[in-house]
Design goal:
three-stranded parallel sheet; 7 strands; four-stranded mixed sheet; alpha/beta
């Protein structure tokens, strides 16, 4: 006869916790930055004629199927139309184009992927937003997920099911 006191019970596996793993929303693919600082005259001014020539002659196919972040790392005032011209030139080649840093690009990719989530499926669930990941998930994405999830869930925790940080608990009525 087996002694029930000696059994090890996996309380995590038996709990009603739902794990939300942002890593599963990661989109593989190359991400690149297109920095227009080298297109500035004397590193300060964007000259329209020169910039349009760059747009006309640049090898845009190098961005084929890549996600592109547009930026200017020089301390210069760049007119908005310059980035619009870049977006037009990239459109036939790039998978997507965003203005900003690589982190801004990553955030945009995650948010795009999260648009397809049926947040209602988490109605009254106790959700753990998984904290450890093999890919870097921008903090902005965790904030976005929290805002989208909060109206639906009973509680939100962060971390791993065996070690969570409580963040939100719906008040009992």
């Amino acid at each position: 006869m087996e002694n029930t006191e000696d059994k090890i019970v996996n309380k995590v596996a038996n709990s009603a916790l739902v794990t939300f793993d942002l890593e599963s929303y990661y989109e593989p693919g190359e991400r690149v930055v297109l920095d227009i600082k080298d297109q500035l005259f004397q590193g300060l001014i964007l000259r329209e004629k020169d910039f349009r020539e760059f747009i006309r002659t640049h090898g845009w196919s190098e961005y084929q199927d890549k996600s592109v972040a547009l930026t200017c790392s020089a301390d210069a005032i760049v007119p908005t139309w310059a980035y619009m011209l870049l977006a037009i030139a990239l459109e036939p080649h790039a998978k997507r184009v965003v203005f900003g840093s690589l982190e801004d690009l990553e955030t945009a990719i995650f948010k795009e992927r999260l648009e397809g989530v049926n947040w209602g499926q988490f109605r009254d669930a106790k959700v753990v937003v998984k904290g450890c990941s093999k890919v870097l998930v921008p903090t902005a994405v965790y904030v976005d997920v929290t805002a989208r999830m909060k109206p639906h869930v009973a509680s939100i925790m962060f971390g791993e099911p065996c070690s969570t940080v409580p963040l939100f608990k719906k008040p009992k009525l």
